[in-house]
Specification:
Blueprint lengths: L1 E5 L2 E5 L7 H8 L18 E4 L2 E4 L12 E3 L12 H8 L9 H14 L5 H8 L9 H14 L7 H4 L2
Parallel strand pairs: 1-5
Antiparallel strand pairs: 1-2, 3-4, 3-5
Helix pairs in contact: 2-5
Amino acid sequence: MMTLKVNGRDQQLDADPETPLLYVLREDLKLNAAKFGCGSGQCGSCTVMVDGHAVLSCVTPLVLLEGRQVTTLEGLGTVSEPAPIQRAFMEEQAAQCGYCIAGIMMRAQALLQRNSKPTDEQIRAELEPHLCRCGTHMRILRAVRRAATAMGGGVRTASEDTL
């Protein structure tokens, strides 16, 4: 038996310590935003945050997570009170099929928590590991910019980078 802190709550789990986090989130805790895409850490659909950092949950065993804070998309906001990142993605209609978008939002959230005013290049670099075939990439970038502004930051321009 191990205790895992997920979305601010302690969860008692009876699982093999080598079990990937994704399986426990989806099967045991019924948190289904993170998706199984490739199973090998190549697509980003399973991205969650661990202690504020984007992590691929399909390749992260439970044994590495005891005493650490796991945050899923469900832990950011609610249907009635979405988090700024969630609201921005809705307002920009940044999801098409929706399969990878939860992982993209979690990686964007991690970026904005450590850098409240990223450049477009930093946003693109942060989201680069995600495979998305929807064709809404410009909407996704606009959504991250909108969330940065809503969270009190914004997006740095190229001229600000030279200061």
